[in-house]
Specification:
- The chain is α+β, with helices and mostly antiparallel strands and 510 residues long.
- 34% of the residues lie in helices and 14% in strands.
- The strands form three sheets. A four-stranded antiparallel β-sheet has the order 1-2-3-4, with no helix packed on it. A four-stranded antiparallel β-sheet has the order 5-6-7-8, with no helix packed on it.
- Helix 1 runs antiparallel to helix 2 and helix 7 packs across helix 10.
- The radius of gyration is 34 Å and the shape is elongated.
- The N and C termini lie far apart (83 Å).
């Protein structure tokens, strides 16, 4: 440490003495190195320094925290804020008590929560237009100064918030619930309130309230708070600030459909929580399709409004209080599995132009099903698993041509031919060691298929054989065309236009 300090001082002296003679880049380099040494030493010393908290007795801390808890409980009744959370929400980093705790992290979380809810609201609104700029709407509606000017007064944040004004000379002293606000600061004009940082600090407190509620009480309560206690205060008529005017009617509509016809009373905050929102804080979970019967068809506008057809008594009974981490979520594994399949493959019949896709069904053992995309109907029954294990990861298990569908069945590895409303029939010999994938139907002789066949007779990585084979669906034979031990990187076979040889693919159908 002494050596590093000596180097630092030597560098500083050398840089100062040679500032006139040395080239400017060299001086700058020496100065940067000295600053780096000094910063490193300062960081190390700060880590070893003891944490200093304001000298207050335990009883005094408890008394101040009780005031903050009482205020939040009154404004956001029937929520019950723990003392630690209340003091963190209502303590700004500029106040001396911030050495104990402050709202920096909660305001960061709350800011992201507000942005997420506003983006969901905008994206689901019928007032959305192509020329609307999400980023500009977010900047004007959720600007911290706007929240501090129009939302914080509704929550009476200024009465209890711990913070220190700036740029006010002798009046720059810590403020809080036990400190009377100086008369010059009591009735400030808008520009003056901005200049001393009041709106900025109060807006940060609003964000911290949202972040604290989201963390402690869950996304459902925070979402309802956004639509009933935040968004209505951002409908600033005749101003370029606040929520974009095009969305005002939709914001009022949502507020009304939540059972609120005017500015909400405190007791209306968490009653009738919509059943589509999980009760498990602190995370915003994606809403799977099928959580409620009323959401079988995903509609973002209904997501924002809530379950319209669910009786309010049923929704009220869903609100339960439990220790953190012990919530029972209405979103069970069965609900998630039944929420919808994953589309793995998409293919088109080149003759009929019918679109099909291969869909994974987690609630049916993970089997793969061919589905007529337009009709939404399964092409094969529950006894079939349209899947290939070629190259282990599989893929390309089916193809369609002129209403006929060929697919690889995972259970026995054979290739089957079928049409809609018909039972599949095998077109390859029975051999459990063979796997087929990446089919190409001959354009002039559609009973001929070219495919990749993987032979696992000697089931060792070094002895597995891949071949390009010709499947005759009439004779139900599979004739090898090209053999290789490594075809994992080979592109799928394709026929040339007209059925002639394609020199790029190296396969022929004649």
């Amino acid at each position: 440490m002494l050596k590093s300090r000596g180097c630092t001082q030597a560098l500083r002296v050398a840089a100062a003495a040679s500032s006139k003679s040395l080239p400017t880049p060299l001086v700058a380099r020496l100065q940067c190195r000295s600053y780096a040494y000094a910063a490193r030493e300062s960081e190390q010393s700060s880590r070893t320094a003891p944490v200093v908290t304001p000298s207050k007795s335990r009883e005094e801390w408890q008394r101040q925290d009780a005031v903050l808890v009482r205020h939040l409980n009154d404004v956001f009744s029937p929520l019950k804020f723990p003392p630690e959370l209340a003091s963190r929400i209502l303590t700004h980093a500029s106040h001396p008590d911030a050495m104990r705790r402050h709202n920096g992290r909660l305001s960061f979380v709350g800011r992201r929560v507000l942005q997420s809810y506003l983006l969901m609201f905008i994206h689901a609104s019928p007032a959305l237009r192509p020329e609307h700029d999400y980023e500009r709407i977010l900047e004007r509606a959720l600007n911290t100064y706007i929240l501090g000017e129009h939302v914080a007064p509704k929550w009476q944040i200024g009465k209890v918030l711990k913070w220190r004004p700036m740029n006010v000379g002798n009046l720059s002293k810590p403020l809080g619930p036990d400190v009377e606000l100086p008369s010059p600061l009591a009735n400030l004009e808008r520009d003056n309130a901005r200049s001393i940082g009041m709106y900025k600090v109060h807006g940060t407190a609003v964000e911290a309230v949202v972040g604290g509620i989201f963390h402690q009480f869950g996304g459902s309560v925070a979402h309802r708070l956004f639509h009933t206690r935040v968004l209505p205060n951002l409908l600033l008529e005749g101003s370029h600030e606040g929520l974009h005017p095009a969305y005002h009617d939709h914001a009022r509509e949502i507020c009304e459909k939540m059972g609120l016809t005017s500015y909400p009373t405190p007791h209306e905050i968490i009653l009738h929580i919509p059943c589509y929102v999980p009760l498990n804080p602190p995370h915003l979970l994606p809403i799977p399709l099928g959580v409620c019967s009323s959401f079988l068809r995903f509609d973002a506008r209904r997501l924002m409004v809530g379950a319209r057809n669910t009786p309010s008594s049923t929704l009220t009974t869903m609100t339960k209080t439990a220790p953190y981490g012990t919530w029972t979520s209405p979103i069970t594994t069965d609900v998630v599995l039944k929420s919808g399949g994953k589309v793995d493959e998409l293919f088109v019949d080149p003759i009929t132009s019918i679109i099909y896709h291969v869909e994974q069904r987690p609630d049916e053992g993970g089997r793969m099903v061919i589905v007529n995309t337009e009709k939404g109907q399964d092409v094969v029954g529950k006894d079939w698993n349209v899947r290939s294990a070629v190259h282990e990861y599989g893929g390309a298990p089916a193809v369609a041509h002129d209403g006929v569908i060929y697919f690889s069945n995972f259970k026995d590895g054979r290739v089957y031919r079928t049409k809609e409303d018909e039972n599949p029939e095998p077109v390859t010999p029975e051999n459990a060691n063979y796997r087929y994938a990446k089919f190409a139907v001959h354009p002039k002789q559609p009973h001929l298929l070219v495919a990749i066949r993987e032979d696992h007779t000697n089931d060792q990585p070094s002895t597995i054989v891949n071949i390009l084979c010709l499947i005759n669906t009439t004779e139900k034979t599979a004739t090898p065309l090209v053999e290789a031990h490594r075809m994992a990187s080979m592109v799928p076979p394709r026929h040339a236009v007209g059925g002639r040889r394609d020199p790029r693919r190296g396969c022929t159908g004649r």
